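RNA-directed DNA polymerase
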Amino acid sequence: MASDSVTTLNSVPQLSPIKLSADNYLVWHNHMTILVGLHQLSHHIDGSSSSPSETIKSDDKDIPNPKYLSWLQNDRKASLLLLSALTDEAAAEVLGLTNARQIWCALESAYNNASVERVQSLRDSLRELSKGTSSVTVFARRFKLICEQLAAIGHPVADIDKLHWFLCGLGPSYEVFSTALRATKPAPLFRNLIAQAESHELFLQSIHGAVTPPAAFHAQHQRESSSV
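Structure:
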């Protein structure tokens, strides 16, 4: 009896702690892809599995198809994984849907908006993004997030555009650094560019302290003016 209870518990898929909302589709999608795959149910959401016939012939009679019953049980597990990881708002998008593939596609359609307006908005945000007073690490994290959002909706950013917009976003404090990087042939990989920018930031801080070079210049100018 105890063994049956353990078997039943083990047959229930582990539920996701991440709930899908309008703000976290990319994170949710990546998490759920891994979680569903961990349960060996990926074929129920990626379209590679179709439902077997519900019945089969045996002695000229229609009887339940064991393969269908097994498929249905696994599809319900996959559906449970998805439904348990939705906010109330997201759950409203899949009301009435009966299998995991339908649920997965409906959520993708609702939250992975690949409209022209969405693409243009993200690209504009990427072009206008600037480091400002944040660290290179924080700036790079924000930059990469927008790039990932564009890639997820089928519009990845070309490496040459990443290089150009990232260097522009660093601002005038990094003019010498950016000019040198632009002249480098072949152009550095984006991940290497970030590491180089972080290293250059540490170099600037070792010279000017925690402030940026323009701020350091302004502070020095004020000290010289006050001493006159």
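Residues 1-10, 214-228 have pLDDT under 50 and may be disordered.
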